[in-house]
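Hi team,

Filling in the usual template for the complex we talked about on Friday. All components are listed, including any nucleic acid strands or ligand strings, so the model treats them as one assembly.

SUBMITTER: L.P.
PURPOSE: interface mapping
COMPONENTS: two
RESIDUES: 706
SEQUENCES:
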Amino acid sequence: MLSVRNLHAGVDGREILRGIDLEVKTGEVHAVMGPNGSGKSTLAQVLAGHPAYTVTAGEVIYEGQNLLELSPEARARAGLFLAFQYPVEIPGVSTAQFLKAAVNEIRTRQGQDELDAMEFLELLREKLTLVEMDQSFISRAVNEGFSGGEKKRNEILQLAVLAPRLAILDETDSGLDIDALRVVATGINGLRTPDNATILVTHYQRLLNYITPDQVHVLFNGRIVKSGGKELALALEAHGYDWIKDEFPAVAPLGAA
Amino acid sequence: MTQVAPPLNRYLAAFEALEGAGTVANPAWLHRIRREAITRFAEQGFPTVRLEDWKYTNVAPIVGTAFLLADAVPTGVAAPAIERFVVRDPVAHRLVFVNGRYSATLSSAAPLPGGIRVASLAEALSTDAAVLDRHLGRHAASEGTGHGFTALSTAFVQDGAFVHIPAGVRVPAPIHLLFVATAPAGPVLAQPRNLFVADRASEATIVESYVGLADDTYLTNAVTEVVLDEGALLQHYKIEQESERAFHVGTTAVVQGRDSTFTSGSIAVGGALARNNLGVRLAAPGASCALTGLYVLHGRQHVDNHTFIDHAAPRCTSRQLYKGVLDGRARGVFNGRVTVRRDAQRTDAHQTNKNLLLSEGAEVDTKPQLEIFADDVKCTHGAAVGQLGEDAVFYLRSRGLGEDAARTLLTYGFMSEIINGITVEPIRAQLDSLLMARLREARVAKEPR
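RESULT (copied from the run log):
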């Protein structure tokens, strides 16, 4: 489904990703872990097409297409979804209004009919229960005045409504209390099918108590330095990231020549 | 009379002709008001950019145009022509004015309970002379509202809307005043003159809409005086949707009694050049006002909003939130002046102006002015001029919305805070679709992709 080869990218001339290789197959869940500043969020943003980042080398093939040539909206319409680490507030636009526009934009581009107001509301109600959100949520302005947990749930609600083929969750677990974490994890698990795939970007192992990854990758200084099964996440949890740093001294820290 | 510049002569001559013709109602009290006003106009003339209050808005195109004074209702404006501006349920009462003159045939006046008076000013000049004598021209003559345009309006006062709500009466549904302008045969000057008097503990909602029927050049010089007695509550909306070749100078002067509440929503989307003056005098303790405004401009439109809040008594509250969305080479001005007089202790005044610039060529001048002479006050102000947040644009794009659709939705969100505050549902819905259509137009115009 997704093939990342030797991806180099950065912002303002500063290289952050320094040769990423990653293969994600349909039906799989991958966890990308790493210490702060290792480039996890950059990888997520680059895959979603954030215009602030520049790709300097490498390629990303998504379902046979060159992903890097697509605009962010074209990526979304092709079934890619990024759950933001810091979801943006959109004053004056309700979640219902926003999601209806998004759903119908994607549906039209995929050759399906638009949902009318009733059909959309029905879909939205069904997904609200999945993330245990109150219906009043959808008439509030997108993320405005939401707590951290509410914002993350709203990301999962969007994930549920848009039903992407490849979901990238950028630190969706950070800042969540245990109840919200359970809700978010249940939501993600409920959306897994043999036809889609998920990349979980996370600093901590705790989300993986709820979601079992097929593969765990350790990102360090812009490269994936180690990949393995879920036991790798447990090892990171037990020993922290220092042993990675010790094991890979050759990977120069960021900013060093 | 003092020596006057040539452009003024036209108006002075027209005044003498009108007075001499004897065709207008002219009781002594009104005659005196008119005379005083024309003298003031001859002295003041039209404002120039040398005046601090007018430095951002040059009215030279108005001064230089030879407007015909709209006199009688032009024939040929039929109901279908105004249909798109008409709002119904729950609007009970609609007065329609064509070029400032009342049109009985286009209006729809339901009977009103409790001695509520809703009439044309022309009629009220004879039927309600006592109330008019007490208020007409008395409030829009002071700081902020007493400029040359107001003097011109008063000198030629003939028609407009008159609303009088007796003490303790609540008007059951909004009153809609629709001011239609049409000038197919050359530039016309329309001068509707309105007076709203809300007696003690009365309650009403009044909407003034100014619309152009076609892409004509004309000037609307509208003056509205509003008087709120003790405990009265008035919701006022002003929708300026003039032709984009038209000029609009709108002046609203409000004076508030003890514990009265005035709310205002001023929406400006039309006009080539528009100036809105809103002066509120909080004259007795406990009065409060909440003013909101939205100007959505494109092309080369110029809209100037000047507000002046005079905190003249203790324990009064004022709130202002004005927002602007500017595209093309449009220019917006917000000048919000708040004066807190020496005795106006425990004043609570807050003012915010936020602007969204959608193009490189758009421009905005925002200027708060606080003059505080009391010591126990809470006064704040804030102003912002910016563009759409790129993170927000990316967020929406990452959900499948195209870049233009994302920008449109964000712009709509910025405006909706003001639009959603409009409590008269049909007016809100009408503005909502108007603004959505305008956003779509802008999107199409910008779409080479």
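MY TAKE: The mean pLDDT of chain B is 91. The two ends of chain B are 63 Å apart (CA to CA).

Thanks, L.
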